[in-house]
Design a protein that fits this description.
The complex is a heterodimer of chains A (414) and B (376). Chain A is built from 19 helices and no strands. Chain A has helices at residues 2-7, 10-19, 21-44, 46-52, 59-81, 90-119, 127-144, 151-178, 182-200, 238-255, 257-267, 269-274, 279-306, 317-327, 332-356, 361-375, 377-383, 392-395, 399-404. Chain B has helices spanning 2-9, 13-30, 40-51, 71-86, 101-110, 124-133, 160-173, 188-208, 233-245, 259-271, 285-288, 304-316, 348-363; strands at residues 56-60, 89-93, 115-119, 138-142, 152-157, 178-183, 213-215, 217-218, 223-224, 250-254, 277-282, 296-302, 325-327, 334-336. Chain B has a six-stranded parallel beta sheet with strand order 2-1-3-4-5-13, sandwiched between helices. A six-stranded mixed beta sheet of chain B has the order 7-6-10-11-12-14, with helices on both faces. In chain B, helix 8 links the parallel strand 6 and strand 7. The chains are: A mainly alpha (414), B alpha/beta (376). Chains A and B meet through helix 4, helix 6, helix 13, helix 15 and helix 16 of A and helix 1, strand 2 and helix 5 of B.
């Protein structure tokens, strides 16, 4: 399926993926997780607990309470993520959607970084650290250098990319030269990044003068992403960078020689080496790219939404990015839409919490369930009774490795 | 954190199944009650809302969450008390990361809150920004004094006063002659506890000509032991173990939930024959801590609940102003908690002295100074 879709044009490829088998599993995982999340909301609701005590005398009470709790929470989630009909003005109504796009921006960028490494057969768990270092580099440029508008932003973006790439280079070169496992190295580098930035924020170079709190000065306006829809919204130009990056990664993977080599390394490093492709170079290049993309996510944070560097600048985006890459089947446009979905969860979760009092942890549970189900396609197939025969040729191999290294047959590119 | 959540989700089928069976049977048993007459439930709630006033009080936590057994929790209790006593409507939002602050506060503004209480100095920048953009909404920020806007009321505490009493108590009850304290991050709201504690110990030494040692904080140099965050229980535990090994038997952790690590270390040390105790901070730990509260000698309380409730009630009465609320021993904003189970450890003589000192601080005879004290 994949090789065919890649030979088609990009829009057909996206469509194909959305309807294709493994994408179906992804979508069903999302649906099932939302349903289970709804059950959880219902079970933990106070009214439901009250009415359940007399369930057998009047079951309708509990059922309607459960329905109200779950649907109320999800309606609030939707209103907080897409469209809020309760707002007085149109501007207020579409605000939630712009929030979703804003939150999705770092998720997409970091998700691309994880996905591109997946496609080369590497598990990049280090997006969190790469975001932090990228953000640190960009922030330093942002509040220290004085440059004309435009150029300042450009240099900040570049610095963020370089910072992330540097943090990706370390595990890449260690993997290529010494065989050190990238999972371990990237996880450890996450800690290094966290503590490094915590230390830096207490040094005069990074700490806001006159304050004892670990917060950097505000970035200059000239280094900030311009707001796309004006000051009423947080949506910034970084989202367009995310779109461009998605297209760029798609082009790189499917249209360029480097991308072909990377995928060949991911499919089978030994065969790639025999074919004259440098595996060493592949690992280093892809980890730098992955780190750079995550670094851009860091730029989107400091130069877009947060405007200052703090220890919590990366929130949990680096880990959510892994989920996003999995849900997007490591395909650039898949990652893009998965990022939008998770952005919607995060943005809508806020409204769900304030409006209905449903704990925001439910969103985390739903996200985690999605990963669980994606990691276990047979479970999903059994639950939804997807015809096993039709999928037989796909399930010959374990699903995940197949999906990470989709470009097994590189025929589409030849 | 995330990973652990994921792994716990991966219960194996059997466990999940038996858990489900258990849940179902519990539901079946619980479901046998009689239905209430008519639609009593909904009527009741309708009545409650009818009696209440048209005022929405909102609260946004920092990363600690409303169950941090510390300042988020006490502030939250204040707003729920206002809900009960004043009949206001309450909305809450927990922040999981610093990046949630902005969205959470903005969401409260869109929800039409009359007053938004933000908890912690970390929310200072967010609060200032939102308050400037929404001059019609009133804000109150706990533990921060940086904002000067007509619609923001800072709620701050001269905690050193109560910590002074705690330091004196610790010095008066220690068996080993060594007490200790450590902080989360070196910020004024933390060091103010440590300054007061150090002064209390020093005052005891001066009065009794004693030589009680204090580990973990040097008031003169303003240097000491810190865990580096308000999350890592392991760091709190290690610090405490080190202090106990160095001979300390009373430890005051000033690091919010990290204090639980201290309790753990004390529990283990006491199982090995030591007799260590903990001084909790922010809330009365004996009442709020879930495990090991028998080791809590006393607590340095910041009564944020009362302050939050008071600020809301003045706003309900339309008499909001932006002068900072400063909690002191005098107005009851800070206090030393009762000794509860540990009453036997504190002699009556010491208790009498504490009362004298408290009066002395209130009258100004005893001056408790801290660089971190709120400037008035």
């Amino acid at each position: 399926m994949s090789s065919q879709s890649q030979s088609g044009d990009s829009s057909r490829s996206v469509l194909h993926r959305l309807m294709g088998g493994s994408t179906l599993v992804a979508l069903l995982s999302v649906v099932l997780s939302i349903v289970l999340g709804g059950l959880l909301i219902a079970v933990t609701d106070e009214r439901v607990a009250e009415t359940s005590s007399y369930f057998f005398s009047r079951p309708g009470d509990m059922l309607s309470a459960a329905w109200e709790a779950a649907s109320g929470a999800y309606i609030a989630l939707f209103q907080g993520a897409v469209f809020n009909p309760r707002a007085d003005t149109l501007a207020g109504s579409i605000r939630p959607f712009t929030e979703t796009l804003t939150v999705a921006t770092p998720l997409i960028l970091a998700g691309l970084g994880v996905a591109i490494a997946f496609r080369t057969g590497l598990f990049n768990i280090g997006a969190q650290g790469q975001i932090i270092i990228g953000a640190t580099f960009a922030a330093w440029v942002g509040f220290t250098l004085e440059l004309p508008p435009g150029i300042h932003l450009l240099i900040a973006v570049l610095a963020g990319f370089i910072g992330g790439a540097l943090w990706g280079f370390i595990p890449g070169i260690l993997k290529a030269r010494t065989g050190a496992h990238e999972v371990i190295v990237t996880i450890m580098l996450n800690y290094v990044a966290v503590y490094l930035v915590a230390y830096l924020l207490f040094t005069p170079a990074f700490q806001n003068p006159g304050s004892s709190n670990p917060i950097s000065p505000r970035l200059d306006d000239s280094a900030m992403f311009p707001l796309i829809l004006g000051s009423g919204y947080r949506l910034h130009l970084g989202f367009l960078v995310a779109i461009a990056a998605t297209y760029g990664v798609w082009w790189l993977l499917n249209r360029s020689t480097t991308g072909f080599e990377l995928r060949a390394v991911g499919a089978n490093p030994h065969a790639a080496r025999t074919a004259g492709i440098s595996v060493t170079k592949g690992y280093v290049v892809v980890m730098m790219l992955a780190g750079g993309l995550a670094g851009l996510a860091g730029v989107a944070q400091v130069a877009g939404t947060e405007k200052v560097l703090t220890g919590g600048i990366a929130a949990s985006f680096g880990f959510d990015a892994i989920t996003v890459a999995l849900l997007g089947r490591s395909h650039p446009w898949g990652v893009f839409f998965a990022g939008l979905l998770f952005g919607a969860f995060r943005a809508g979760g806020v409204q769900m919490q304030t409006q209905t009092g449903t704990p925001i942890d439910i969103v985390l549970v739903v996200q985690s369930l999605i990963v669980l189900f994606i990691a276990a396609p047979p479970l999903i197939k059994a639950i939804f009774r997807i015809d096993q025969k039709k999928k037989k040729k796909k399930s010959n191999k374990p699903d995940r490795s197949e999906d990470i290294t989709t470009p097994t047959a590189a025929g589409g590119l030849a | 954190m995330k990973n652990s959540q994921r792994t716990t989700t991966r219960l194996n089928n059997k466990t999940a199944l038996s858990a489900a069976m258990l849940g179902v049977s519990a539901l079946l048993l619980a479901g046998c009650g009689a239905a209430p007459e008519d639609t009593a439930g909904s009527d009741e709630s309708a009545e409650a809302t009818a009696a209440s006033i048209d005022y929405t009080g909102c609260i946004v936590s920092d990363q600690g969450g409303f169950d941090d057994e510390s300042f988020n929790q006490s502030s939250y209790e204040g707003i729920t008390a206002a809900q009960e006593n004043l009949g206001i409507e309450v909305r809450q939002a927990e922040s999981q990361a610093e990046t949630d602050f902005g969205p959470n506060v903005n969401s409260m503004v869109t929800e039409g809150c009359d007053m938004i209480v933000t908890v912690g100095f970390l929310l200072s920048a967010t609060t200032a920004e939102a308050a400037e953009a929404n001059p019609d909404t009133n804000f109150a920020i706990v533990d921060d004094n940086q904002i000067e806007l007509p619609n923001v009321k800072p709620i701050i505490y001269d905690t050193a006063q109560a910590a002074f009493l705690a330091g004196y108590t610790a010095a008066g009850t220690t068996e080993t002659g060594t007490v200790a304290t450590y902080g989360g991050i070196q910020i004024p709201t933390v060091t103010i506890f440590m300054d007061g504690f150090a002064d209390g110990v020093a005052y005891y030494n001066e009065q009794k000509d004693a030589d009680v040692q204090l580990l973990g904080w040097d008031k003169e140099a303003q240097t000491g032991t810190f865990t580096g965050d308000f999350e890592s229980l392991a760091n709190g535990k290690t610090n405490t173990e080190n202090f106990i090994n160095e001979g300390a038997d009373i430890i005051m952790p000033v690091a919010g939930p990290v204090g639980a690590g201290t309790i753990e270390a004390v529990e283990e040390a006491n199982a090995d024959g030591a007799d260590a105790k903990v001084i909790w901070v922010d809330s009365d730990g004996f009442l709020t801590v879930n495990a090991g509260n028998e080791y809590i000698l006393t607590s340095v309380m910041k009564l944020m609940g009362e302050a939050v409730e008071e600020v809301i009630s003045t706003d309900v009465d339309d008499s909001f102003d932006n002068t900072p609320y400063v909690g002191t021993l005098e107005n009851g904003g800070v206090a030393l908690a009762p000794f509860h189970d540990q009453e036997d450890a504190v002699s009556e003589e010491l208790m009498a002295e504490l009362e004298e000192i408290e009066a002395g601080i209130i009258s100004g005879d005893i001056v408790v100074e801290s660089e971190a004290s709120p400037q008035q």
